[in-house]
Amino acid sequence: MRFKLQAKMSRFLVIFLLAVISSGSEGSFFRRVCEHQRMRINCGSKVINIVSATYGRTRRGICGFRNNRNTNCHAGTSMMVAKYECQGQSKCTLHAKNSAFGDPCVGTFKYLEVRYECVPKSQVRDSVLLRICEHRTQTIRCPSCKPKINIVSANYGRLTGGHICGGRVRTTNCGAAGSLDKVKRSCQGKRSCRLTASNGIYGDPCVGTYKYLEVRYRCEE
């Protein structure tokens, strides 16, 4: 009798834990495509909220078994590109290729992994997009009613053609890996901050290409 009671309690505990795990991940989707393939995301009547994105290789045994020894490979522009293409849209297409994300590990066969949510449009809070052309400085300033800057994303380099900031464009797959951390150190939680787009601060991720600093932020209470 005691053994049967323990068995029932164990089964109940397993069911309870599975329910907790399932409820915690509800609304979150994970997708993966191999290099050269396309990832199509469709949220129907809702909109896309990108949670994470990685283009590169962090494990063997995924997307073929050749040229997979480098498992410390991640494109610094992964999140920026995924958000640029998909955030707040009902559907989007991401191309898992070097021309979209850059080539973080030459000679290694890569893949794109994205985790996203489908949420009501009201849950994707409005953010402000600021672009600062290379060698220039601009100030972010929030109003007194919402005095705290929250940096959503940042990239120093170039992800689009010459219609942004002009200048010489040799590549549109250019991003300084430490962009987000450096912008956050300067601005996160402050009411105002000054940002300068320069190689001296972020490094030069694409020599010979005229770059810009792209920052997406929100003003919060």
UniProtKB/TrEMBL annotation:
Signal peptide: 1-27
Protein's name according to its UniProt entry: SUEL-type lectin domain-containing protein
The SUEL-type lectin domain, residue ranges: 33-119, 132-220
Source organism per UniProt: Pocillopora damicornis
Transmembrane stretches, start-end: none
One Pfam family per UniProt: SUEL_Lectin
CDD domains in the cross-refs: Gal_Rha_Lectin_SUL-I-like (cd22827)
Keywords associated with the record: Signal
PANTHER family: PROTEIN EVA-1 (PTHR46780)
Gene Ontology terms for molecular function: carbohydrate binding
Superkingdom: Eukaryota
